Amino acid sequence: MTSTPYHITTLLEKMTSSDKDYRFMACNDLIVELKKDVLKLDEDAEKRVAQMLLKLLQDKNGEVQNLAVKCLGLLIHKSKETNLFWLNETLCDNLTSKEEQLRDISSIAIKTIIAELPPPSNSLSARISHTLVKRLLNVFKDPSVDSHVQLESLDIISDLLIRYGNLLQSQHEEVLDVSLSLLKNSRVAVKKRSIIVISQLVTCCSQEVFLKLLDYVISRLSDADSILMYKTYVQAMGAITRQAGVRMSDLLPKIIPLVLSPCGEDSGFKDDELRECCLQTLESFIQKCPRDINQFIPDITSIALTYLSHDPNYYDDGEEQATGSDDEVMDTDQEVDSADEYNDDDYSDDDDVSWKVRRAAAKCISAIISSRPDMLAEQYTSLSPALIKRFKEREDNVKSDIFEAYIMLLKQTKAFSILRGRDVIIDSNDMETDGPILLLQQQVPDLVRGVTKQIKQKSDKTRQCCFSLLTELVLTLPGSLSSTEDLNKIIPALNSSIHDKNAASNLKIDILHFLHVLLRNHSPACFHPHIYVLCPLLVDAIQDSFYKITSEALLVTQQLVIVLRPELTQTADFQFEPIIDTLYHSTLLRLKATDIDQEVKERAIACTAQIIATLGDKLSPEQLNECLCILLDRLENEITRLTTVKSLSTIVVSALNVDISSILPQTFPLLASFLRKNQRTLKIASLNCLTVLFEKYSSVISEDLYCPVLKELAPLISEDDLHISQLVLILLGCLSKGIPSSMNFIHDSLLPRILFLLSSPLLQGTAQTALLNFFTSLVRANIPSLTYESLVILVTEPINNPSKDPAQPLHKHGYHSIAKCVSALVSAVPDQTDDTVKSLVAIISNKTSTDQQRLYALLTIGEIGKYYNMRAYSELQQILIGTFNLTSEDVKSAAAYALGNISAGNVEQFVPYLLSQIQANPQHGYLLLQSLKEVIISLSRHPDNFLKLKPCVEEIWSHMFQNCESPEEGKRQVVAECIGKLTLLDINDRLPKLEAALKSESENVRATVVAAFKFTITEQPQTFDPLLKANIGTFLCMLEDPVLSVRRVALIALNSAAHNKPSLIKDMLGFLLPKLYAETNVRKELIRQVEMGPFKHRVDDGLDMRKAAFECMYTMLDTCLDRLDIFEFLTHLEKGLKDHYDIKMLTYLMLTRLSSLCPAAILARLDQLIEGLRATILSSVKPESVKQEYEKQLELKRSAIRALVTILQIQDAIKNPKLNDFLAQIKADKNLNTILDNAIHDTKSLTGETSMDTS
């Protein structure tokens, strides 16, 4: 690039032109050149460019100055170190210039350079930042320096501390001394900038400097003799708290009383601005130190409640505002000002700052609510009534914050109710009589009364807050507004607000959203008296010119239609016919329109479908036909087809049996074509729609309609997308029942794909069930070419002819699927059972059979044995036990499975024999125990069948305890599951025996017994749950057992209880949590080195224990959040961020959950969490590592960054300096930045968010 230096010289010449446009274009071209990686400048060229840019900083044209600043920022990436130092020195000299414009532009240039400097890891940045801070601090040694220079210098120091604070440790004390001295400055702006510098300093300074700062501020607060001085140091304390509140926990007993002091009645400082500062600082303490400030919460709450109503310049005679009629309140021509009745010529509302105190008090209360979910019940007693009373606040900004505080209370209650909803009440005595839900229910009338009075106000902001609060109330407590009295207040207020000619669009949208939530979460009957008010309201909204209002109104109308007629097959108890035409025509008008927003089109289609599905029998044939024709037209439109397909499904499944056969000939080809589209949601909707169509109209669907559909189904059957495969199989099952002849067309393409899926190792769950149901329907369809025998041959082809594709042997899971399929065919054709069983027994007995054939036969015998009594095959047991001597482990396991299932089908005959074999054949002990486990598990699924086992229980129990001390862990696990299930058969008798076994000296017995107790905890409520709750503590006390393996099993049992029935353990968490948290620590005594040839390998015997502990923590986060101290929880979670791979992955999942559940706690501990994430995200793998290590490290980084992205979604998280610095480091790395972008995109897709600011 030899021409570049010449080109730069040319640009420099143009920069001296007298024409400002030349200078502007030259700077612009220079920016382009400096961005090129290939551009290289020698030292002399750098100097000339820098000198010219410094000269342009004094240009008379502002645009040229701005471009010169940008050029300087880019130039530092091309400059040598000496030139960089010279440039910064020159700019610092300019900073003290007497010319104000030069000072300002030089300050901007220095900030730009700081932003463009290399990251802190670069030594150059350290040297430059040190030099800059030194020069800037010298400014304050000159007492005559202009205050504007001081302000700019403080700004630059603040920027340096944000980016390079950790590199400036040696200068921290000097920065602190200068900043503290400036707190005495007479200029308020200088004080504020000094406080900002101090707040940035505390994020990176040493503990010694931090304590020096706090001691100084505390001493100055103690000695303050003026309001101004007290206010300054309270503001400083608030800024320190916001940035480093976690570091202040030990000094809170000294600090809080000093901050509370000016708010007391006996305080000598009676100043509203000081009170505001104190309340803001207290809010910061609550948010940053919610756990450590616990002892002061009552005092802070009392003060916040006092100042929430602090309005010394307004006389309240005790009556509520807005006591006039609705017309008087809503009349926009009449100004209502309660202060007008007091004529005080010496006072103006402009001088009143008491509203700031009330606003700070409201925010303080909101902080208490958000950070202390454990105090919800108490908050409903103390805070809720006070907030409701203050809804009458006269200042809109304050009123908005009061509503926000109450909305926060409702959100916390909703989280609590969701958590309680997952729990199972196992004892009526456990029902809370003073819980937050009950307290909220009691306060609903007062809440509604207070809100409805405010809805009548003129302010759009106030009314939006009212409807937001009511929406949150209904979501928190569905059905809470169902009383006639409440609705009689809300509906008229809602109606008058939406018809207010001055109401903003956003207010109308909020009203409609609330109405939609209200209709969805209440009984339809309670709205019937108000239908004739709601209907005109919605019709007007549908006709609104703003598309968002129209869209929301159509959504509400769709819900209103359901409310009109909730039971389609019953006679309605009120007359809705008069409004059908009104709703129909207003919706039809939007359905016909083509020049409207996409959202409105979709909502109009969905609303029309709901009208047809709910009121179709009340529409005339002409009206119905008109709608169907339009829907058919929308089905052909690429933009609206997905919504239309879903809408057709809604119409077809309606209990009214609306006849849409007139459009079927056009509908089927379109739906078939949609199956080819590369749009998964459209495929799913189309398959669902086709399924309901075949169910409803099978008698009128001809071959030329269903054949095109069948042709499109084969490519959709794949193990890559089991959900779509499942839908296809359900569709085929419907076809085989409704139109059996259609199955003649599946031989060539569909059946081979289905058989391939049957052999897939991925087939499981609902997809497998759908496949089995399809084969059951198929064999019952009596198709000549698809008889029972032919289907069995097709299904077992991979077993009987394995050589067909030797490169892909049948997976073990495929044998299980094929066995289930044959069993399903047998169950559909019972006449074939005996012949099938005989042939399977023959395969097992035949010495020439392959292991694959035996495995299939044994598994199939087991599946058939679940429902068919094998009494006639008395020799079968001996045959199955004989296979235990074969070499194949898979065959032996299948034999144990088959033996257990046939024994479950005939307990009286087979179980005694099985027990005798356990005693007689100890060499097959494990396999026989497996069989016995299958018996117990199979019978336990049906309580009546389980009772058949009662005569044998004592003998089984004895056998199990004989095997408790087995050195084989696998055998002990089988024994534990059997003992647990047997205990449920007679829990009153067996549970004490289990407790007694806990005292055994054998660690294996103790571990087995605790594991057995885990199997007594079922997800469904049981009559014996109170007994489990009374005794669970005895078993979980094994967390104190000296043996590691016993403690681990106890942790697994605790995890099971927390997951399935948290009520069992919630009252014991005070005892259990310390034991759980203790197991999260890495124990050096459990780490040992193992020599493997020339290599040494570290083995951590405590790793499994820690995994179990963190898994239990993860479960409790989901089920016991209301009983956890989140900050203690986070303390132990932080350890997991530095632990083993598996544990790190768990902690990232927990961080993701906590970011949405407890955002305030995450923000309070963000600095520590960032350090844990940084260690993983910025780490690198050793060059000699194997490929698996690279893959594990990459997956760790992805998971950590996903957790980071969820933290970024927390409001105000991006304001954290460490987080910003960490983000900058990630973005500086190309690979990490790609992972970050992908994580943000995935999060948006899941949450539906449109933007996320990480800049």
Quickly describe the structure.
With 1255 residues, the protein is mainly α. It has 60 helices and two strands. The relative contact order is 0.03.
Protein model, in words:
The protein has 60 helices and 2 strands. It has 1255 residues and is an all-alpha fold. A two-stranded antiparallel sheet has the order 1-2. β1 and β2 form a beta hairpin. α1 packs antiparallel against α2, α26 runs antiparallel to α27 and α39 packs antiparallel against α40. It starts with a helix and ends in an 8-residue tail after the last helix. The C terminus is likely disordered. This is Cullin-associated NEDD8-dissociated protein 1-like. Keywords: Repeat, Ubl conjugation pathway. InterPro entries: ARM-like, ARM-type_fold, CAND1/CAND2, TATA-bd_TIP120. It holds the Pfam family TPR_CAND1.
Distance between the termini: 34 Å
Tally the helices: what do you get?
60
Question: Assembly state here?
Answer: single chain
- Percent range of helical residues: 55-70%
Radius of gyration: 38 Å
Family: Belongs to the CAND family.
Pfam family, one: TPR_CAND1
GO biological process, one term: SCF complex assembly
InterPro entries: ARM-like, ARM-type_fold, CAND1/CAND2, TATA-bd_TIP120
List the main descriptive attributes of the protein structure presented here.
2 strands, 1255 residues, globular, mainly alpha, single chain, 60 helices
Indicate the topology.
Layout: H1 4-14, H2 20-34, H3 43-56, H4 62-75, H5 81-95, H6 100-116, H7 123-139, H8 147-164, H9 172-182, H10 188-201, H11 207-223, H12 227-244, H13 252-260, H14 272-288, H15 297-308, H16 326-330, H17 354-371, H18 376-389, H19 396-422, H20 436-455, H21 460-476, H22 484-498, H23 505-520, H24 531-542, H25 547-564, H26 577-592, H27 598-615, H28 621-635, H29 641-652, H30 664-674, H31 680-697, H32 703-713, H33 722-738, H34 750-758, H35 765-780, H36 788-795, H37 797-800, H38 812-828, H39 833-845, H40 851-865, H41 876-882, H42 889-905, H43 907-920, H44 925-940, H45 943-946, H46 953-962, H47 969-985, H48 987-997, H49 1003-1014, H50 1025-1036, H51 1044-1060, H52 1069-1078, E1 1087-1092, E2 1095-1100, H53 1103-1119, H54 1126-1136, H55 1141-1157, H56 1159-1164, H57 1166-1177, H58 1187-1208, H59 1217-1228, H60 1230-1247
Helix pairs in contact: 1-2, 1-3, 2-4, 3-4, 3-5, 4-6, 5-6, 5-7, 6-8, 7-8, 8-10, 9-10, 10-12, 11-12, 12-14, 14-17, 15-17, 17-19, 18-19, 18-20, 19-21, 20-21, 20-22, 21-23, 23-25, 24-25, 24-26, 25-27, 26-27, 27-29, 28-29, 29-31, 30-31, 30-32, 31-33, 33-35, 35-38, 36-38, 38-40, 39-40, ...
